[in-house]
Amino acid sequence: xEGFNAANVRDNLVRGVKRLAEEQGFTRVVIxxxxxxxxxxxxxxxxxxxxxxxxxxxxxxxxxxADIEDxxxxxxxxxxxxxxxxxxxxxxxxxxxxxxEKEPEAGEFAVPHSVESDINVGPRLRxxxxxxxxxxxxxxxxxxxxxxxxxxxxxxxxxxTSCDFALLLGLTSLxxxxxxxxxxxxxxxxxxxxxxxxxxxxxxxxxxxxxxRAIHDYIRKGTSGDAATDAKIAxxxxxxxxKRRMPPIINPDGGACL
Length: 258
What we know:
This protein is α/β, with parallel strands linked by helices. The chain has one domain (6-195): HUPs (Rossmann fold), CATH 3.40.50.620. The protein has helices spanning 6-24, 37-50, 68-78, 88-98, 115-137, 147-152, 173-180, 188-191, 204-208, 212-221, 227-239; strands at 29-32, 55-59, 81-84, 140-143, 165-166. The chain has a 5-stranded parallel β-sheet with strand order 3-2-1-4-5, sandwiched between helices. β2 (55-59), α3 (68-78) and β3 form a beta-alpha-beta unit. α1 packs across α2.
């Protein structure tokens, strides 16, 4: 991409993690390893910054994960610590509490089944597992979300948006790929792998209805080159604003939210 020096950005990210670790006094990081480009690049940057022995990658399938071998391949290629925590049983237990056939107690309300709500349970349970491990290990939790996802709200509130530092949030999805391709320690096929959420059975672009190239151009150039696509991205950006901000504080004096 014109004007984007991926090697310089990679080195800046490594220095940034080192600097943050020195300022805050931590030496270890925990990362959720999905086998996709974002967690793969995040793990590689952290390994370069802090040493592979200080990076703890956690793989979290929800029952069966078709591409779990990709997650294992990342950990093996980087030589980082790895652990598998299957969230399937936790997910089923939570869902069972809200199933329609489970009658609520007298006076209680029923909760209707929601596919989207169920899909988002996965990221939230994963974040709980990651927080558990990070605190137990005395580590910080590295975020893996990128700027493209954040812009259109393709992230889960209190799920993958929760972290101690956001390593890739200044880079678009396409830029993350470019950075990943500068690191020979990473399997190339994982860096360029088609992004999916691992939950719905669809690619990110299928679920979003726009391409990551269009989102990149909208962010970096101000337009994707198509007015209708720009309008769709802008609408998603507005709707997802609450995911990018701290919760509003209701003003006790009756004025605007603080």
